[in-house]
Amino acid sequence: MKNTNQLIGCCGLDCETCDARIATITNDNALREKTAALWTKLNGVTITADMINCTGCRMEGAKTPFCEKLCPIHNCVRERGFDTCADCEQMDGCLTLGSIAVNSPFVLENLNRLREAR
């Protein structure tokens, strides 16, 4: 069964509250600039405002370059034919997912809700 909340990302992050998605759907260039600056600082790579266009990693439409091509979780989910990590039996011990969950523990709550909804 497909997970119904398409705004919960592959990793459990909530795309609905993501500044990149909000900047995209509201065409807010100031928020794009702010998000690019923050993501540059957090990731140690240059991210420009024109890269901040995304409708959500599981939604049709624009994606940030990271979400589209570089995200190890998004790539794993696609390779395995899943919607999200919630579809994977190895989710609970996954080191890749754990690296996100350590800073954003709510991702596990979101993924567990998706599992329960199946």
Present the secondary structure layout:
Layout: H1 19-26, H2 29-43, H3 65-70, H4 72-80, H5 95-101, H6 106-117
Helix pairs in contact: 1-2
Task: Summarize it.
This protein is an all-alpha fold. The protein is built from six helices and no strands. The relative contact order is 0.21.
Description:
This protein is an all-alpha fold. The protein has six helices and no strands. The longest helix has 15 residues, at about 30-45. The termini are close together. The model has no long low-confidence stretch (mean pLDDT about 90).
Report the radius of gyration as a whole number of Å: 14 Å
> What's the average pLDDT?
91
SSE run? HHHHHH
Class inferred from helices and paired strands:
mainly alpha
Provide the low-confidence segments as ranges: none
Query: Could you give the distance between the termini?
Result: 6 Å
Judging from the principal axes of the Cα atoms, what is the shape?
A: globular
Number of helices: 6
Assess the beta-strand content as a share of residues.
under 5%
Approximate helicity band: 40-55%
Number of strands: 0
Main sheet? none
